[in-house]
Structure formats: structure tokens, C-alpha cells
């Protein structure tokens, strides 16, 4: 009898042990289930709401007090795009240094492009706003004005990230956030949602934010603090069927803030009239240097160079700059732009030529008169 009771107890203990192990396995699967599902591309994704993502983007950007980035861009298109003339009248290469610190701005641009005729051109321009004055150097002349120029703020890097920097961009985000092209403001549009299924982008399982009609999608990497690694937009502008932005070589510049060192933008082009597909145009951006929160004030200072023409709208004078000895060019505080200077120089040259011609005729007439008077006396 005792032996039977012992056997019963052993069998019962074994059954309880098996049930406990099975229960533990179920708990374990429940606890790691979402991660395994994400890795396998299943229908479970990390939870983040539209509202939470908007707060996340704003919070991370608020940590950036100053930034300096140096990048190059190269625009190319396939044979059909070139044949259609879609690479004419655009900038094909850029070498840019852009920086901001509070209200201060700096932009140095070297561009290569072509006119609608296909003729090439080069542009070099430096613009700096120190918080009080805006200075622009172009065509070997320095223009000084009190108001900030948009040229000191516009740049492809922050624009591609959907990061409003320029005054006009910020104003648009405040007045009509849902209609702006900037993050996180356009998410105020109520037609945005978080898709229930993650999607793979370069083997990364992404949370996808999408408009209800799927015309605009954002792919977020949850392993990198929900950093945007790809975006797609249908029919963003006339003559374009689709935009695709791909952000690569991400680095964590601040805790939770990952910024890309490479960016590829693909434009799927269509005929403006027939809307027939033409081909792809790509803009490849490479970041060569990026610094955050340690930008010195000297970055935003642009001083005249010796012998440089200065159009000083703040002081109301125009002059050739030489250290300790400047030569005025204009009167009455009139600010002269480079184009005005060209016209002014042409006018001076014409006036000088006319004056010389008139003087020559006058001297000839005087000489002829003297000769006639001598002939009459003789």
C-alpha cells in the first residue's frame, strides 16, 4: 500500500512538473513573442502613436542648439531623362557648407548647372547672418543689409530631413502645419495612421506611418529610436510620379538623435502632358563633415577682403575696401547691387567716350577756326 502511494505521488509530481514547464514556456513565448515576430516580419510591431512620434521628433530637435554640415550633391538621370531634356535648367552639382546657431546663419555654395539652352554655368556665393547684419559675397563684391536673406538659410540637407530652418518655413509650419512639407507638422493632418504591419527596408523591420490613401509613407527604424530611414510620396509635384528618400550611414550624434551621412533621392519622372513614364533622376548627397552644439560665433562672420567692392546698405555707402583707407563709390546712401554696378560702370564708360569724342570735335573746330583767322590776315 505504501509502495502504491509512493508511485501515485511520483506520477502526480511528474505531471505537475510537466504542466509547470509548459506554463513557463507559454509565458516565455509571450514575453519574447513581439521581438521574434518583428525579426520574422510578422504582423506585430513596436507601438508608437502619431502623437508620440510628433513629440519625439520635436524633443530631439530641441536638443540641437547649433549645427554645421558640409555636403556635396550630384544629380544624374538615365538616358531617357537626358533625352527628354529634364537635366537642363537645373543644378547638377553642389558643394555646400551650411550652419546655424540660434538666429545666426551661414551658407557657402559652389554650384554647377545648366541653362535651358544646355549651356553650363558656375555659381559661388557666401551668405552670413550674425543676428544683426546679413552679408553676401558674390561676383567679387560684398553686399551688406540689415534683413536676413533667405539664401543664408536654404539648404538641401535639413530640407530633405523635413526640418524647418528658414524663417519662411517656420512661419508656414505655424500658420498651416498640416499643409507644410515639414516634420512633424504635416502629421497634424488627420489622415495619417500607423500601419498594423511592419515592412522591411534593407533588412530593417520598420514601423510605417502612412496616409490613408497611401500617397505618403514614412518608414521608421525602432532599433534607432524610430529614426526615419525612408520616405515615399506619390505625385508630389507636376511632372513627378513619385519621390523616394533613402537615408543611410546613420550616426548617433546626440542620445537618441541619429543623423544620416548619405542620402539618395529618386524622382520617377513622367511627361507633363501625357503623364507617360520617362525614367528616373537621382540626387546623391554625401556628408563630409557634421558638427552639433559646438559651432563658434566666428562661423557667422564675413569680413570684406582687401580691394573688394562693398555695397553697404546699413551705413548707406558704397566703397572699395582697403584696410584703413576705403574709397567711396556712391553718393547719398544709395545701395548699389552688382548688376547696378555693371550698369553704372557701362554708363561711366559711355559718358567718358562721348566726352572724349566731343572734346576732339571741339578742339578740331577751334584749330580750324584759328587756321582760317591766320589765312585771312595773310
Explain this structure to me?
The protein has 378 residues and is of the alpha+beta class. 29% of the residues lie in helices and 37% in strands. It has six helices and 17 strands. It has a 17-stranded mixed beta sheet that branches. It starts with a helix and ends with a helix. The N terminus is likely disordered.
Task: Describe the secondary-structure layout.
Blueprint (H helix, E strand, L loop, with lengths): L1 H39 L9 H13 L3 E12 L1 H5 L7 E11 L2 E11 L5 E10 L4 E5 L2 E5 L10 H5 L6 H9 L16 E3 L4 E3 L2 E8 L4 E6 L5 E8 L5 E15 L2 E14 L6 E16 L15 E5 L4 E5 L5 E2 L9 H40 L1
Parallel strand pairs: 6-15
Antiparallel strand pairs: 1-2, 1-14, 2-3, 3-4, 4-5, 5-6, 7-9, 8-9, 9-10, 10-11, 11-12, 12-13, 13-14, 15-16, 16-17
Q: Key terms for this structure?
A:
378 residues; alpha+beta; 17-stranded mixed sheet; 37% strand; disordered N terminus
Order of helices and strands: HHEHEEEEEHHEEEEEEEEEEEH
Runs in which pLDDT lies below 50 for 5 or more consecutive residues are 1-13, 16-45, 331-340
Number of helices: 6
Rounded mean pLDDT score: 84
- C-alpha termini separation: 173 Å
Class derived from helix and strand content? alpha+beta
How many runs of DSSP E, i.e. beta strands?
Answer: 17
Classify the oligomer.
single chain
Strand content: 35-45%
Summarize the structure.
The chain has 378 residues and is of the alpha+beta class.
Amino acid at each position: 500500500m505504501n509502495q502504491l502511494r509512493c508511485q501515485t505521488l511520483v506520477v502526480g509530481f511528474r505531471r505537475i512538473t510537466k504542466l509547470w514547464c509548459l506554463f513557463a514556456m507559454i509565458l516565455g513565448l509571450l514575453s519574447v513573442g513581439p521581438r521574434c515576430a518583428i525579426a520574422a516580419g510578422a504582423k506585430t510591431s513596436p507601438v508608437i502613436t502619431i502623437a508620440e512620434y510628433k513629440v519625439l521628433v520635436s524633443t530631439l530637435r530641441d536638443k540641437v542648439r547649433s549645427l554645421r554640415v558640409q555636403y556635396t550633391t550630384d544629380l544624374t538621370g538615365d538616358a531617357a531623362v537626358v533625352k527628354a531634356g529634364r537635366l537642363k535648367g537645373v543644378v547638377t552639382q553642389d558643394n555646400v557648407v551650411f550652419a546655424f546657431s540660434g538666429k545666426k546663419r551661414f551658407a557657402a555654395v559652389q554650384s554647377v548647372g545648366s541653362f535651358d539652352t544646355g549651356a553650363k554655368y558656375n555659381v559661388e556665393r557666401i551668405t552670413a547672418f550674425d543676428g544683426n547684419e546679413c552679408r553676401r559675397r558674390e561676383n567679387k563684391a560684398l553686399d551688406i543689409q540689415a534683413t536676413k536673406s533667405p539664401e543664408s538659410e536654404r539648404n538641401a540637407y535639413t530640407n530633405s530631413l523635413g526640418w524647418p530652418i528658414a524663417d519662411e518655413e517656420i512661419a508656414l509650419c505655424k500658420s498651416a502645419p498640416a499643409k507644410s512639407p515639414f516634420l512633424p507638422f504635416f502629421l497634424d493632418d488627420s489622415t495619417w495612421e500607423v500601419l498594423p504591419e511592419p515592412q522591411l527596408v534593407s533588412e530593417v523591420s520598420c514601423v510605417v506611418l502612412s496616409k490613408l490613401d497611401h500617397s505618403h509613407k514614412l518608414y521608421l527604424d525602432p532599433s534607432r529610436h524610430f529614426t526615419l530611414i525612408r520616405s515615399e510620396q506619390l505625385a508630389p509635384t507636376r511632372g513627378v510620379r513619385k519621390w523616394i528618400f533613402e537615408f543611410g550611414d546613420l550616426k548617433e550624434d546626440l542620445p537618441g538623435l541619429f543623423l544620416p551621412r548619405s542620402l539618395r533621392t529618386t524622382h520617377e519622372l513622367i511627361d507633363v502632358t501625357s503623364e507617360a513614364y520617362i525614367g528616373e533622376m537621382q540626387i546623391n548627397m554625401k556628408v563630409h563633415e557634421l558638427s552639433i552644439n559646438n559651432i563658434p560665433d566666428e562661423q557667422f562672420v564675413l569680413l570684406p577682403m582687401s580691394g573688394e567692392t562693398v555695397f553697404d546698405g546699413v551705413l548707406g555707402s558704397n566703397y572699395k575696401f582697403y584696410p584703413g583707407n576705403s574709397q567711396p563709390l556712391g553718393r547719398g546712401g544709395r545701395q548699389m547691387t552688382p548688376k547696378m554696378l555693371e550698369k553704372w560702370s557701362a554708363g561711366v564708360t559711355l559718358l567718358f567716350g562721348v566726352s572724349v569724342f566731343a572734346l576732339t570735335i571741339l578742339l578740331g573746330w577751334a584749330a580750324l577756326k584759328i587756321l582760317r583767322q591766320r589765312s585771312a590776315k595773310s
